[in-house]
Write a structure and sequence with these properties.
The protein is mainly alpha-helical. Helix 4 runs parallel beside helix 7. The longest helix has 25 residues, at 110-134. It is 80% helix and 0% strand. The chain has helices at residues 2-19, 22-29, 33-39, 43-65, 72-88, 93-103, 110-134, 143-164, 168-172, 175-190, 195-214. The chain has a domain at 51-193: Tetracycline Repressor, domain 2. The chain contains 11 helices and no strands.
């Protein structure tokens, strides 16, 4: 099953859902198509499992790393950087599959992708809620608008990489520089108006306390 899922990911990433076939997956593995059907009832079930496993890997990485960041700004920066790395460094094939199938409601996999995408964005939503509660993020915007505000620029970058074609498209991008620019832009749009002033006051208080202790 692991081999079928591994090769299935390769084929779906290269061909997309419509052009991928279980026959080709079996041929690459050197087994009969009947062997594939022993584990999966058909192409749709196999593709759903491939995409679900891919999302599970991404979600696990985000959920493990995000809480380690101390501030809302650091968490936002980490989320953007990790988002772009996970979607692009391994190649744009799976990214293209998910974007194309998820965007069109009439597509066969759209209804499967929607709950996966909600799970994927849940850590971001939690970050936005915590940031509003702590006063680091602005509270005059509803969360339903803050979510696309945060994800929109990254989705545009992913579409741009997909449009370039080939697995090298994402690797050719300076992901760290792009992530830093996107994070800075999002922070300026999402931060509370007096967030920087509060941070400076906190820094001043910390310095004063340190000087008092050292004196």
């Amino acid at each position: 099953m692991r081999d079928i899922l591994r090769v299935g990911r390769e084929v779906f990433a290269e061909k997309g859902y419509e052009r991928a076939t279980t026959t080709e997956i079996a041929q690459r593995l050197g087994v009969s198509e009947a062997t594939v059907f022993t584990y999966f009832h058909g192409k749709r079930e196999l593709c759903v499992r491939v995409i679900t496993d891919w999302y599970d890997e991404i979600i696990a990485a985000i959920e493990a790393g995000l809480p380690r960041q101390q501030s809302a700004r650091a968490q936002l920066d980490w989320f953007v950087r990790t988002h772009l790395r996970l979607f692009l460094i391994q190649g744009t094939g799976m990214c293209a599959l998910v974007l194309s199938e998820g965007r069109s409601k009439g597509q066969e996999l759209a209804e499967v992708l929607q709950p996966l995408q909600r799970r994927y964005t849940a850590p971001l939503m939690d970050l936005l809620v915590r940031g509003q509660a702590s006063g680091e993020f602005r509270t005059d915007l509803p969360l339903r608008l803050m979510r696309p505000l945060a994800l929109g620029p990254m989705e545009h970058i992913l579409w741009e990489a997909v449009a370039q074609g080939g697995d090298g498209a994402g690797k050719a991008m300076d992901i760290d520089a792009t992530a830093s620019a996107v994070s800075a832009m999002l922070w300026s749009a999402l931060q509370a108006p007096d967030a920087e002033l509060k941070a400076l006051r906190g820094l001043r208080a910390d310095v004063a306390e340190a000087l008092r202790k050292s004196g």
